[in-house]
Amino acid sequence: MTGRESPAAIDTERLLAVIADVAREAHPGAQPQVTLDASLEKDLRLDSLARVELVLRVEQSFATELPEHALASGETPRDLLRFLLSGVEHAPTTAETVPTAVEGGAVRPPEHAVTLTQALEYHVERQPERLTAHLYVQEEGRPITYRMLWDRALGYCARLVEAGLRPGNTVAIMLPTCEEYLYCLYGVMLAGGIPVPLYPPARLSTIEDHMKRHVGILRNANANVLVTVPQAKGLAHLLRASVESLRAVLYPADLEGAAKGVEPWRGRAGDIAFLQYTSGSTGDPKGVILTHANVLANVRAAAAALGATHDDVFVGWLPLYHDMGLVGGCFATMYCGFPTVLMSPLAFLSRPARWLQTMDRHRGTISGGPNFSYELCMRRIREEELEGIDLSSWRFAFNGAEPVSPQTLAGFSARFARNGFAIRAMSPVYGLAECTVGLAVTPPLQPWRVATIDREVFASTREAVPSRPDDPSPLAVVGCGLVFDGHDVRVVDAAGLELADRHEGRLQFRGPSATSGYYRNPRATQQLFDGTWLNTGDHAYLDDGQLFVTGREKDMIIRGGRNISPYELEHAVGEHAGIRRGCVAVFGSPDPRTGTERVVVLAETREQVGEPEQLKRAITELAVDLIGGPVDEIVLAPPGTVPKTSSGKIRRAAARELYESGSVDTRQRAVWLQLLGLALAGAAPQLRRWRQAIYGLLFALRAYLVFATLLPIALAAALLAPGRVCWNTGRRLAGWFLRWSRIPLMVTGLEKLPTTDPVVLASNHTSYLDVVVLLSLLEYRGYRFVGKRELATSFLMRRLAVGFGALFVERDDLTRSTEQVDDLAAAIRAGHSLIVFPEGTFARRAGLMPFRTGAFQAALQAGVPVVPITLRGLRSVLRDGTWYVRSAPASATFGAPITHSGRDWAAAVKLRNEVRTAILRHCGEPDLAMTAPPPLSDR
C-alpha cells in the first residue's frame, strides 16, 4: 500500500483508540472517556506537546499527512476525523453520520442544552425507551421512560395552557412524591411556566392549617395556579380569596389528557427554571431564583466531581420539594442520562431499612441525605432486616443539608461494612439553595477528613489550631470536601476582609450556579450580596482547599431534614399573657443522639407568672399549630436573659451559646446585674474581632509600605544592571520584603540543589509571591524565569522581567510548541538554569493543576535534571483576585534532582509525572487532575 489509506480504512474506533492511548500516556492512571465530541484540551487534558504527539500518531497510524492547520484548529476527535476524511477525498459531511451512541446504546449528556426541557428532549430523541425514573408508591414500582415522561408532561402542558397559564407565570406544586409530580414539573416548564415546589400536608387532619401557612409564599410567588392533592379541593375558595393572583386550583386528574398538538415553549438559558423557597412560612418569604443556566451549571459540576457515568443508578427518598431531592434526584439524573429510583420520604422514615433494600434491589451507586437519615438507619434498622442486603454497589453516599457528625460518619460505615458498604463511600458535602444545591463535595472513594482542633483557642481567637494528643475534649469539625470546579469560596472577617487558611469567618461564594437573588424580595436580595460574592449565612474556615463549616450564622433550624423558621413561633409565644413580648428566642441546638437539631424556645416570663407547666403546655400547643410539631425544650427565664442587639433584634446565635454553655439563669436577678452580664458577655468577642481586623489591616499596610520602598530599587537594578547584579540585588530585596513584612518562611532541602551544572527548577504555582520567595532563596547561577507572554504587555513587568533574564513563551500557540521547547533547551545548553511553573497559571482554588510538558521535554533535550520545588502557604498569604496580604506561614521544600534518559514525548511525560508526584507529596493541596475527572461520556 502506498500513500494514503482508502476511505474504507478510516475507522472511527481506530482513531478513538489512538487518542485514548495518547491520553493514557499523558495522564497515567486516568481512564479517559474518548468520544468524537470530547474536547482534546478540556476533557482529555492534552497540552500542546501532547497534541503534537497525537497528530504524529494519527499520521503514522493512518499513513497520511494532516494539513498544517490541523494542529491549531483540531479541537475534538471529530475534527481530526474530518481532516482524515478530507485527506482521502471523502466528503467532510460523512463524519456527521457517525452515531452519537456507542457501546450498548450509551448516549453522552446534552452538553449543548441550555434548558432542562432541551435536555429532556435530547434524551427522548436518542434513547426514548431508556428508564429515566422508577417510582415506588406504596411499594408498587412504576417505571417511567424518557418517552413516557415527555408525552405525559406535554399533556399536562396542554391542560395548563388551557387553564390560562402563560410563559413566565408561576405554578405552585404541592404534591407528594409520585409520578404525577414529575409530569406536572416538566409540564409547567414545557408551557414556559415557573414551578414553585411546596411541601404537601403530612396529614389530612391538618390540611387547612397547612394551606394557611403557605398563603405568604403563594402571595410572594404571585402564583397563578396551584396543583395540589384532591383533598384540598374544599379549601380552593379560601386560597383564591387570600391570594389575588391565584386563578386556578387544579389536581393531577384535571391535567391528564393528550397533548393535542401543543408546541412546547422554547426557553432560554436565563429563564427561571424554578423557585426554591428556603424559609418556610414566614412574614418574609425567600424564593431563590434559579435559572436553567444555574441548574445545568450545578448539575454539570456535580457530575464531573462525582465522575458520574451512564451506568450509575441514583436512589432517593428525599422529597421533591427539597432542593437536594429535586436537583439531585430529578434534574441531575435526567440530564446525565442514568435512571433514578424514587421512594416516598414517609416510606423511609417509617422503615429506614427500605432505603438500603432499595439500594440493593436496584444496585444503586449514588444516594444520600441529611446526617439524621444515617443516624436513623443506625438506630432503627434491626439486624434481621439486614439479612441478604448487599451495599457494595454504593460508591457515593453524600451526607449534607445539616451539620455532619463525625460519629455518624464512622458509626454508619462500621455498622454496615458487613453488608459491603465501603468506608470511603461516605462523602460529607456542602451546599445551599442559593447555589442551586451543591457547592463542595468530598470526591468519591477519597477519605473524609475530620479536624480535631483546640476548643479553647478556637473559641477565643477563631483560629483552628490542631489539638494536643492529650487534649481531653478537642473540637471535631468535619471537612465538606473541595469546591466545585468553576466555583469559588472565601472566608471573610466582620470587616469583610479575607482571612488566611485555618481562620474562621463568614463563608461567601460565587460561581455559575449562584442565584441572582430572591423573587420579589429586594431587601433580602440586597443582604445576600457582598459585591460579586454571596453570603452563605454560615461560618467556616479553609485548609489547603478543604472546606470546614463550623456553624450557622443564619437563623434557620434544620430538624430531620426540614427547615423551620423561628420568626412566627417567636412572635406567637411573645403574644402569650405570661411571656414578655419581643423577648423570645427560638433556635436549633445539635443533638448528638439523633444526629439532627433540637428546637429550643428561650422565653422571658413576666414578673407575676402562673404555673410554669401550664405556660409550657400553651407554648407547645402554639408550636404544634405553627411548625407542625412540638419543640424539644422550653426554657423559661427572667427578664434580661434573651440577648439582643443595640436595635432590639434577637441574637439567636448568642442565645444558643448561653443555652449550650448552661449559662441561662432561670432565677430573677437585679436589673443592673443583668445589664452588666450582657455587656461583659458581648464586649470580649467584639473586642477580639476589632483587634483581629485592625491587626490584619496593619499587617497588609506594612507589607505594601515595604513593597513600595523596595520596588524602585528593584526597577533601577533591572534597568541599569541586568543579569548578575540585578539578580543579586533582587535576591536581597526579596529577603528583606519577607523579613520586614513578617511573612515567616521555612525552607527545607535547599542543600539538594546542584551547585555547578545547569538544572531546571519546577515549582507549583500558588501566588504572585511565588517568584519573590524563589528569588530570595536562589544565589545567582544564570537563572532565568520562564513566564507567559502576557507578562510582557505591561511596561513595568516587562522591564523587571527582562532585567532578571526572563524567557517568555506562548502557552497556547500549538504550532510553535516544538520551537519553544528547542528555545528552552538552547538556553539550558548556554549555561542557564530555568525556573518554571508547569501549571502555567494559578487560581484562588487550592489544588495542584495538571502540568504542561514543554519544560520537561527541554530538560531531556539538554540532558539536565529537574529539581521539584513545593511552595506551601503563599496562596493563603496573597490569593488570586485580591491584593489584601494576610498573615500566614509559608514554606519551600526542595526535592532531590530527577533525571531520565530518552528524548521522546513518552520520556518527557514520565519525567513530568515523577516531578509532579514529588510536589504533590508535600504541597498539602488536592490533586485537581484527579478530583476533576473528564465530563460524563460513554463507557
Strand content: 15-25%
Would you identify the CATH architecture of one domain?
A: 3-Layer(aba) Sandwich
Number of strands: 34
Number of helices: 30
Overall shape: it is globular
Distance between the termini: 34 Å
Q: What would you call the structural class?
A: alpha/beta
Mean pLDDT: 85
Strand order of the largest sheet: 28-34-33-29-32-30-31
Which consecutive residue ranges, at least 5 long each, have pLDDT under 50?
Answer: 1-8, 88-105, 932-939
Radius of gyration: 31 Å
Q: What's the CATH H-level superfamily name of one domain?
A: Glycerol-3-phosphate (1)-acyltransferase
Portion of residues within helices: 25-40%
CATH topology of one domain: Glycerol-3-phosphate (1)-acyltransferase
CATH class of one domain reads: Alpha Beta
Question: How does this model look, in words?
Answer:
Strands 28-34-33-29-32-30-31 form a seven-stranded mixed β-sheet, with helices on both faces. A five-stranded mixed β-sheet has the order 11-12-13-14-17. Strands 18, 19, 20, 21 and 22 form a five-stranded antiparallel β-sheet that branches. Mean pLDDT is 85; it is low at 1-8, 88-105 and 932-939. Among the domains are: 7-97, Non-ribosomal Peptide Synthetase Peptidyl Carrier Protein, Chain A; 450-552, Luciferase, domain 3 (Roll), CATH 2.30.38.10; 564-669, GMP Synthetase, Chain A, domain 3, CATH 3.30.300; 699-929, Glycerol-3-phosphate (1)-acyltransferase (3-Layer(aba) Sandwich), CATH 3.40.1130. Strand 20 and strand 21 form a beta hairpin. The chain is built from 30 helices and 34 strands. It has 939 residues and is an alpha/beta fold.
